[in-house]
Amino acid sequence: MASDTEIVPDSERGGLIGALPGPLRPYASLMRLDRPIGAWLLYWPGAWAVALAGLGAGGLRLLLWLALGAWAMRSAGCVWNDIVDRELDRQVERTRLRPLASGRASLVGAVTLGASLCLIGLVVLLQLPRLAQAIALASLALVAAYPFMKRITWWPQAWLGIVFSWAALVGWPAVRGEIGLTALLLYAGSIAWVVGYDTIYALQDREDDALVGVRSSALALGARARAGIAVFYALALGLWAAALWRVRPDGLTLVALLPMALHLGSQVARLKPEDGADALARFRSNRFAGLLMFLACLVVGTSG
Fold this sequence. Notes:
74% of the residues lie in helices and 0% in strands. The chain has helices spanning 4-7, 15-18, 25-30, 37-52, 59-84, 86-89, 99-102, 107-125, 130-138, 140-152, 156-164, 167-176, 181-202, 206-212, 217-221, 225-247, 251-270, 276-284, 286-301.
């Protein structure tokens, strides 16, 4: 049997997770408590929509509720993903020490944790207007299906984009009371953005994924990965420009989007596809990219 030193990752020996009692640490790892990047990436599209819609009377309160919902549902999604992928995770170097894959967390405990996080999500859901509630609920089937996509399509990143961008379709009607073309353009642009940044993330696992039969856009693109990411980022910028232009059709729109365009261009230009550490750093920089897009939406949405 493996020793504690062999099976416990460094992330559980220090920092936020390391400060918790020992029995709780594997479950905190299941939630990715030490890696909030995923919660940020899930949050931003909803925040963009609220900002571009003009915030409304309760804009700040809505942004805070969406932040709590993004954290809870991203954590629940990670738990669900690890439940579904526990056998595959044992075969991949980067994921073999995940709590379920290594046996440090029980399946019953993981299911209980996931259900508890979904209850937090339900509390957030009840704070939203009816239309926004219905749209948010419609995403659950998509979320549940995501872990299986890597087994049936070379483009699971596209499915992740559909899921991780869904909050854009929730935030807009939460302020405006309806879904319109502007929200759909913002949503479509976010999907392209997610495909781009998650392809960068998938570059880390290309060799292991190929060995165990897991599919990804990074494998599908192969040597053309950088060019493919550039195309998806360009598509995202074009769709976002159209969404912002519908709210304010003047030059301010394009100026507001320029910092985001420069940041995404820098990611592509500086990316080293064969360097896993560099790919992870470029992926994580999208948390800041989300902030730049939020500021663009805020400027355009509140300047009318």
